[in-house]
């Protein structure tokens, strides 16, 4: 769909916006909204939290995130109130509440003053201001620490473009319709990604547990959770295939600290999507690396997260550069070449992940012992079979990865179009008057 511009524009006195349609006005936040601060004084209300997916009812019985000891000191939120995390202009957000409840006293709760104004229009405006970092220039604090807040005075004085009420409603309705279409396409693409992942997982699982020959004779593996394996394969424990199974340690154990550059230090958060991610980047000095001999890695080590929410995730360290890892990450060093990739692929299967979950000590966080890791049984094909499996999977997984990258690019383009469309509509760059009624008439 192509859009037209407004026929006449005028300049405005806002630092962040140059022009608006000639018949629009500008108003300061304090003229549009009234900030509310209503402390509940009692317990029993739903606790609401602002996320980048909107305002959610929080599960206060879980251990996720920071929990308050006294929700009676939280402020009241009613249906149709705006709730804004103004304490974090980088990763915070804003939403209109669909619930009655309480929320953090650090959030900003406010109501629109005029009943004829569209809450939907202003919500799109606010959310766009977060997405486009418009509010960021009006913040204060320490952004590198995630504490970049918008003071009340800056909020009150912020200049907002205000279309006539009926046009606010038209813009909100237009964006509701168009973003719903885009969101449907995005969700379809994301579902396709999930189906690709399931298919890829099934291909890997069958290859490393049953081989490539559909007619091969099978035998019981002797391990209940592992099931049958090809007749000519062996079943061994990881520790019998490895010269070393060890976990890392932190620099603090020898009184050292992280540095701005130096030897790459791998944490659990660096292991994702079966690869070692260079970000976030942690480093230690050469001296610290030399002292932490137990955690030194070499090319071909299989890294396994053994503590925390991502327990069981794995990757092969593929580099000749020195590196270390911490106590949340173990490494398996195979006795022979050609086993690293096979072990890692096997570890990544749903079958093994379920077993790791069962064996992990469930306290505050999962924790897999070194003994349990070493005792995991895996099917061991002969070298010739193993090489063919790895070659097959490299080619097949490459196809899946390429398709996934293409779909992710499509999702990014759709998300970018969504953001551009919202920004253009709420700042008067496109004229959507009549489009909603025209679409409704066409539908009828």
User: How many domains would you count in the coordinates?
Assistant: 3
What integer is the average pLDDT? 92
Measured as a percent range, the helix fraction is 25-40%
Sequence of strands across the biggest β-sheet = 4-11-8-9
Radius of gyration: 28 Å
The major sheet is characterized as: 4 strands, antiparallel
State which percent range the strand residues make up.
15-25%
- What is the distance, rounded to the nearest whole angstrom, between the alpha carbons of the first and last residues? 19 Å
CATH class of the largest domain: Alpha Beta
Which key terms come to mind for this protein?
disordered C terminus, four-stranded mixed sheet, Adenine-n6-DNA-methyltransferase TaqI, Chain A, domain 2, about 450 residues, four-stranded antiparallel sheet, 30 strands, alpha+beta
What can you tell me about this protein's structure?
The protein is α+β, with helices and mostly antiparallel strands and 444 residues long. It folds into three domains: 108 residues, no CATH class; 134 residues, Adenine-n6-DNA-methyltransferase TaqI, Chain A, domain 2 (Alpha-Beta Complex), CATH 3.90.220.20; 148 residues, Adenine-n6-DNA-methyltransferase TaqI, Chain A, domain 2 (Alpha-Beta Complex), CATH 3.90.220. It is built from ten helices and 30 strands. A four-stranded antiparallel beta sheet has the order 4-11-8-9. Strands 6-5-10-7 form a four-stranded mixed beta sheet, with no helix packed on it. A hairpin with a 4-residue loop joins β12 and β13. The longest helix is centred in the middle third of the chain and has 46 residues. It starts with 8 loop residues before the first strand and ends with a helix. 29% of the residues are buried. The C terminus is likely disordered.
